[in-house]
Amino acid sequence: MDALREIGNIGSGNAASALSALLSCPFTISVPTVRILDYSEVAGDMGARSR
């Protein structure tokens, strides 16, 4: 779980740095949230967000 969180942090940081360089303006990012869910939780969560 910690490895996935760290991969997300690194990817987000790299994306923010690239956007900042391309657009010549600073970007701030928030730390992504990682949770392990059952399939039923994923389906229910995605359905709730699409409404």
TrEMBL record:
Keywords associated with the record: Chemotaxis
UniProt-recorded Gene Ontology molecular function terms: hydrolase activity
Entry annotated with the keyword Zinc: no
InterPro entries registered for this protein in UniProt: CheC, CheC-like_sf
Residue ranges of domain CheC-like protein in the record: 1-34
UniProt record, GO biological process: chemotaxis
Coiled coil: none
KW Ion transport (keyword) present: no
Name assigned to this protein: Chemotaxis protein CheC
